[in-house]
Amino acid sequence: MNILGINAFHGDASAAIIVDGQLIAAAEEERFNRIKHAAGFPAQAIRFCLGAANVTIHEIDHVVLARDPSARLATKMLYAAKMPRLAIERLKVWQRFATIQEELGNAFEIAPETIKAQVHRVEHHRAHLASAFYVSPFDSAALLSVDGLGDFASTMWGDGHGERMNVRGAIAFPHSLGIFYTALSQYLGFWKYGDEYKVMGLAAYGQPAYRDAFKEIIRLAEAQGFTLNLEYFCHHKSGPEMTWGDGEPALGKLFGDKLTKLLGPVRAREASLEQRHYDIAASLQERLEDVMIHLAGQLQRATGQNKLCMAGGVAYNCVANGRILRETPIEDIYVHAAAGDAGLAIGAAYYVWHHLLGQPRRFEMKHAYWGPEFDAARFRKCLNDKIVDAEYNVRELAGDTLPKRVAAEIAKGKIVGWFQGRMEWGPRALGNRSILVDPRNGAMKEILNRRIKHREPFRPFAPSILKERVGDYFMQSHPSPFMLMAYSVKPDKRGEIPAPTHVDGTGRLQTVERETNPAYWNLIHEFDKLTGVPVLLNTSFNDNEPVVCQPEQAVDCFLRTKMDLLVLGNYVVERAGNAAVI
Fold this sequence. Notes:
Helix content is 36%, strand content 21%. By secondary structure, the chain is an alpha/beta fold. It folds into three domains: 2-130 and 345-356, Nucleotidyltransferase, domain 5; 137-338, ATPase, nucleotide binding domain (Nucleotidyltransferase, domain 5); 376-575, Carbamoyltransferase, C-terminal domain (DHBP synthase, Alpha-Beta Complex), CATH 3.90.870. Helix 16 crosses helix 19 (518-531). The longest helix is centred in the middle third of the chain and has 29 residues, at 275-303. It is globular.
């Protein structure tokens, strides 16, 4: 049986396909159309998924959309009467859901009526919960989904057992932990969709000096987890102004004027950062962590479960995730690689397969490599077409020679673009579309930001570490294969790996297993043999764009930046003279 899951007409549009319960492929539309967080209909992602599964659209049995217009219909109608502009925008989206066969017909240039798949609609947060539980290693677990807003809810919780999920409660609009964090990110001058992760990095530079103010802005509640003090927001009056066109999503202003009376003047987008801003970010981050710990604790007590599956955009907050593991009775956490809205495509598909059809569970997502891959012939053609300048040397290395040579170059201070295997699913580069450098060189953070990434200097980079060596470098050893946990680096190791150690002494680590990514594991292993350090600094292979998908994009990024080496499969491209450019 073939099931196609789709997240459409919403940020991070995506598609996934499962065949007889096994995930075959998953990808975000942004990787193909090169628009960050692309909304609209994920036609290219769908075509990729079907091609990877070697099926046609006529062979799809079920199409599942991660949106249910009928969910909380009474609440939606109530707010529609208050906010007609919001109602009109939502109606446009719902109309497109109603014509999904036409969208698929356009994607494959066929008559819509020839598509015979049964169409399902799964509520936003149920799809989030399914995306976490049904691909986790747990037979039973507590389930928690927290984000900005979806089907007029921001939070949902419950428990899962085998093929069934039990929803125990939800928090509806206008109360939202995601909107709380986004509104304060806007206040701090970060207005682009998805900028919240920048504020998480900013928070490490401050102290929670505004702790009392943030306890006033968002309050813990025994009955439903938390409530917003709506006096500091405006989304409940004008509607959360969101533009979900076919391009990059955009959000309107979410905070109210009273917030400036409480915290002071709003930071303009390009204004310099002051200590006040760092402290507000630290206070914001601490309060989010407090609420998440409160939610997780409540859920554990209600369900008796010590294992937790999390999804939704707030599940990307790796600092909060680490604190939940340290400070609650939760003993094990599973957050998959695309915990945000892209992951809805997988969740919707598995919700139908397990919860509706009752099929047994037989799949666990142990890695994130579900995107496109390319063969040596494609690499050769790409290099022949694009590397025509004598400034570059191209050679092919086989077997054990490649990781040994590349590890040696990294140890010499070279910046390496590393392109291998299938593209990652989710926002993190996890060793297949990565830029890699020596973590021992503390100057590498500034060098990468200046030469390659062209981004804010306060943003951290991630350490990739051999799974079996985590306890040697970090205060916690719970695996983090998807780079969604932040742990404290052991004090005696911070001087050893200064480049990916954040200013607060933590690292947003990725644990690398030999079984799931042998090429990347071997590279780190060879670096360890040379240096005694089983860690590489890993950042995404891009430059103010979506992570590269195709080899042509990798070559273009290499050529326009100042990377020293590019590795495409077994091909190594280096600048003539092989001299690092500092």
